[in-house]
Amino acid sequence: xxxxxxxxxxxxxxxxxxxxxxxxxxxxxxxxxxxxxxxxxxxxxxxxxxxxxxxxxxxxxxxxxxxxxxxxxxxxxxxxxxxxxxxxxxxxxxxxxxxxxxxxxxxxxxxxxxxxxxxxxxxxxxxxxxxxxxxxxxxxxxxxxxxxxxxxxxxxxxxxxxxxxxxxxxxxxxxxxxxxxxxxxxxxxxxxxxxxxxxxxxxxxxxxxxxxxxxxxxxxxxxxxxxxxxxxxxxxxxxxxxxxxxxxxxxxxx
Length: 254
Known about the structure:
The chain is mainly alpha-helical. 44% of the residues lie in helices and 6% in strands. It has a two-stranded antiparallel sheet. Strands 2-3 form a two-stranded antiparallel sheet. Helix 8 crosses helix 9 and helix 9 crosses helix 10. The two termini are 26 Å apart.
């Protein structure tokens, strides 16, 4: 399965951003996830005791959710496509990365996304629905939910509308051929790659297969990224970048 190797950011409308507190979460963890401070969250929500937050409560959070400002260039990508994806311009991307020829970018290059650049907007309700699907499917198949969330964020920024230049679809960036394989051979039984929850289901099943088939977590992630047949004894540069980005994101979803 080939998908865009990008560490992505998500922008939600500032007037509607909120976070539903889950059991075990801390204010510092929520602040880190949303790229803000505990002090700002306390002020926004009139919290008397920052050490005491109750599961089920909705907290107001800053409208911008930034996970990373790095994009790893994949085969077939252009600077214009990357700029469009992050809501910025070719000129800003070129300036931020000192690119003299915008028509020449190299696979594996790590591009800095200018401040304020973001993936096309998604509503908090859509994000909440996708997150619930990621958690449910991960637990249902015995895969670490934080790892599933990290893969999904790396692949699409949790957007079912995402499409890669290679033809990968949805939240988990599943190729149609991969979906057919999962449905035929891994027990998917008619899952539809174009439906968000089915897409997540397909991706989690494939990730579980990679974890079972390959000897290390990094190799499993490389297999998810480029197909298990392309994973050799030593990972190539693109595979290393992809696995490293995902594992860095895992820490943010703990």
